[in-house]
# Entry
Amino acid sequence: MALIEIGSRKQFFIDDYLIESMSDCTTVLNRAEKVEHNPIVRPEHPWEGNDVGMGHVMWDDEQGLFTMRYSTTQWAVSQGDGEVIVEGEGAGRTCLATSRDGIHWEKPVVGEVEFEGSKDNNILPPEWLMGYTYRDPNATDPAKRYRGHVRTGDTKSPGMTFDLYFSPDFKTWTPYEHNPIIDTSPRIGRWGPTDFMGWDPIRRKYAVHMENCLHRRAPLGKRLIGRSESDDGIEWSEPETILLPDRLDPSDTEFYDLMVSAYEGMYVGLLWIFSTTNMTHHPEAVFSRD
# Structure
């Protein structure tokens, strides 16, 4: 058997690629450990309401920081006819938090949006906000360091489109002159939940993963996961189905979404599992070498 060159990369025993033989043992996924001071981000200020939800998290190489854009909501709880009624005031606001380790978070003053007569808060202005975003490591133009994508279309439209935007600072955004870059309407279908991976350092392509059933003629009538690739992030390939429920999954299992990162030469993903019987969701870890 030829030697396998692994260099200095960490190796994950998620399959038998590096295992010649096993006897009286099995591989397991280590159980995650919860941080003691959970929740790590909680509502503390009047503009945060009484509920926060995690949004977009990104590592900034230059600042050595994780940045998180999180949502806030003010929920009103009341009693009615013997039951608790919970009402929200919509999407609320989007705020900024930063961290050096991803565990301990701070809320820096952004100073852009006025709240009750003061801008001494971490609220982000709407014009800074963009849909699916990532930093482009291949950008040679400083004005295009970041890419963002905005989706149009819903379950009632024949298809959907994605517009591309560029930004030098993650704050000001300029639309690509030939938008949209993706249009699913010619196939009379639409992508479901979508996650732009950005630049894939393993396959050397830009990549996006999506619920690929197009909400029509899906194999086995189920939601499943697809992947589309691009050399430049503008011209995209037809999505290829890469992951679908099989005989080892419960019969009511569907795959709703997949978030993927490249790490140590491998793909690590969180697969969004949807049970159609009890309408519940839960994540499962998935791995791939290609």
Remarks:
- The first strand starts at residue 51 and ends at 60.
- The radius of gyration is 22 Å.
